[in-house]
Amino acid sequence: MHKRSSLTRKRTQKVIQLKEQDDFLDPEAMPQYFQILVKILEGHKLAWTNPQNANSYVLVVLGKKQYRTALKKKTEEPAYKEMFTFEMFVNMRELVRSSVWLAVMELSSLYVPRGWLEKPP
């Protein structure tokens, strides 16, 4: 009985070693260096609370890294013409699961009225 359990253990160890070798040979499991280029060109037909004073920028986020375009003042159709590069060292599965978040922000939307941040009684 003791020999049988040691054989089972050896087979299990071989299976684990084979799985580790498969992961090593699998290019999707290996971490790789990626560059993701995001180009922000222009905005069209943006609806602002105050169109005469439409100051806007674009916020781009991927993971923990974020970029922001320059502020475009007093225009409803801003032309940003900027690009950002995100650098990642991940495996292919993590890359596919990641997502780029874009938001066109109005500068006046950053204003928080007095009392909004206070805790309720």
UniProtKB/TrEMBL annotation:
SUPFAM superfamilies, per the entry: C2 domain (Calcium/lipid-binding domain, CaLB)
InterPro entries assigned: C2_dom (IPR000008), C2_domain_sf (IPR035892)
Name the UniProt record assigns to this protein: (diamondback moth) hypothetical protein
Domain of life: Eukaryota
Domain (C2): residue spans on this chain: 17-121
